[in-house]
Amino acid sequence: MTATAPPPAEPDPVTSHPDGRVELPPGVTLDDNRFSNEDLRPVPVAERRWTTYNFTALWVGMAHNIPSWTLASGLVALGMDWKQAVFTIAVANVVVLLPMLLTGHAGPKYGIPFPVLARASFGLRGANLPALIRAAVACAWFGIQTWIGGQGIYVLLGKVVGGGWERAGEIAGYPWTLWLCFLVFWVLELAIIYRGMETLRRFENWAAPFVLVGAVVLLVWIADKAGGFGSLLDQPSRLGWGSDFWPVFFPALMGMIGFWSTLSLNIPDFTRFGAGQRAQVWGQTLGLPTTMTAFALLSVFVTSGSEAVYGEPIWDPVALAGKADNVFGLLFALVTVLIATVSVNIAANVVSPAYDLANLAPKFITFRTGALITGIVGVLIFPWKLTSTPELYIFTWLGVVGGLLGTVAGVLIADYWIIRRTVLDLADLYRPKGRYWYASGWNWRAVVAFVVGGVLAVGGSASQPGKGPFPKEGLIPFLRPLADYGWAVGLGASLVLYTALMLPVGARRTKGTPAP
C-alpha cells in the first residue's frame, strides 16, 4: 500500500538478487544533482561487503568510550546499586536495538543512506527536516566527544611530560597545551574520515579489539593493586526495588536509550554497505547490547577496585589511568583513550551529518565536505562550555534528544514497515515529480506526525532550579508526566499518527484517485 503524488504508471526496473538485495540495473541514471551525487546514490551490490564481524566491531568500537564508561556512575549517583545500574543499561540497549534493526533493514536491501530513506516518508525536500535535526545533534556530540578526548590526551601527556605542561599559559581560561591536544585530536579524526567509509571499516576492525584489551588491562591492573575489589559492590541500593526505584528507573531508561537513539535513525548509513540482512542483524545484535552491558559491568568492577586502592571511587577512566606509576602504562592508556574516542566519534558523529549535509545540497556538498563542515560546527558550538554543566548535558540533553529522535524513528518505521511493507521505488527516491514528491517535495503528514510526537515527547521537559534550561513545572505542565518516557512516547505517537494519516491516502490510490 503506497501513498504517492501522483505516481508514474510503472516503477523503474530493478535488479533483485536471491538474498533480497536490490540495485538499479545498468542504464538507469540518477542525474538530477539537486537530489543525487556519488555519496548518496545506492551502493552497488558488488560493493556491499560489510560482514557480521564488521558490524560487531563497529559497535564494540563505538561502545568503548569515556561517556559510555561513566553511564553506570550516573545511575549509581541517582541511588541505584551496581546491579540496578547494569540492569538498566542492559534493558535500554535491548530496547533500542529493535528500531536499530528495523531502520537498518533498508540499508543492505537498497544500499541507501538515512536521508534518502527519509525521502520515502517526508518527501524529497522534506527529508532535510529529520536529516538536519540528526546532523545538529551529531555536530554537538562531535564537539563534546572531541573535547573529552582532547582532555584525556592532555591529562595523560601531562603525567608523561611533567614539568610545566599543566601550568602552561592560558588562552580563554584553559592552558594552551589543552587547546593543542584538542586541535591535534580534531585534525586526526577528520583525516581518517576524509579517506572514506572503507578506511573507517578497516580502522574499526582493529580499533575494537585494541580498546577491549585496553579495558581488560585496566581491570587487571586495578585488581592487582587492590588485592580484590572494594566495598562498592557491597553497597545497598538507596532506592530498593519498590516504589522508590521505578520513578527513577523509567527516566533513566529513556536517558540510556537516548544515548544511542541517534544511531537508531542513521544506521542505514552503515548497513547500506552490508553483505546481507544476516550480517547487519547478527552484527548489531552481537555488538550493541552485549558490549554496552559488559562495558558497564567492567566499569563498575574497575571503579570498585579504585575505591579499595584510593579510598574513593574513581569513575573517570582517564583520571584512573593517570595514576599509573610507569611511563609505559601511561602511554598505553593514552593510546587506548585516543583510539576509543576516535572510534566512536567518527562512526557515531561524523558519518551521519556528512550524509545529512550532502542531502541538503548534493550539487555542492559531498561526503567529505559534509565531514569538514561537521568538524567546524563541532568547534563553533563551544563544547568546552557544554560539558561544564553535566546535569544539562547528561540527563536533560539525552532525554530531549532521545524524545525528538524517537519521533523521527516512529515515522520512518511506520512508513517503511507498515505503509510500504519494505517495498520502495529506488529510482524515485532520487527524482522529483515521482511517487515520493508529495506536495512540492514535502509530505505534510510526516511533518504533522513529527510535530505532534515531538510535543508529546519533550513538551513536558522540566529541570530543577539551576540544573537545566526548563521551568520546574515543565514547558507544558500537563505534559510533564510524559517527559520521563520521552523516547517511547515520541516513537509510539508518531508511528500511530503517521499510519493513521497515510492509510486513507493509500486507499484512495487503490481506487485510482491521485494522492496529494
TrEMBL record:
A Pfam short name: Transp_cyt_pur
InterPro entries in the record: NCS1 (IPR012681), Pur-cyt_permease (IPR001248), Uracil/uridine/allantoin_perm (IPR045225)
Molecular function terms from GO: nucleobase transmembrane transporter activity
Record field: transmembrane: 57-78, 84-102, 131-156, 176-194, 206-223, 245-265, 286-306, 326-348, 360-382, 394-419, 440-462, 482-501
Chain segments carrying region Disordered: 1-35
Membrane association type: Multi-pass membrane protein
Transmembrane in keyword set: yes
Stretches with biased composition (Pro residues): 1-11
Cellular location(s): Membrane
Keywords associated with the record: Membrane, Transmembrane, Transmembrane helix
GO CC entries: plasma membrane
Family named by the database record: Belongs to the purine-cytosine permease (2.A.39) family.
Protein name, entry field: Nitrate reductase
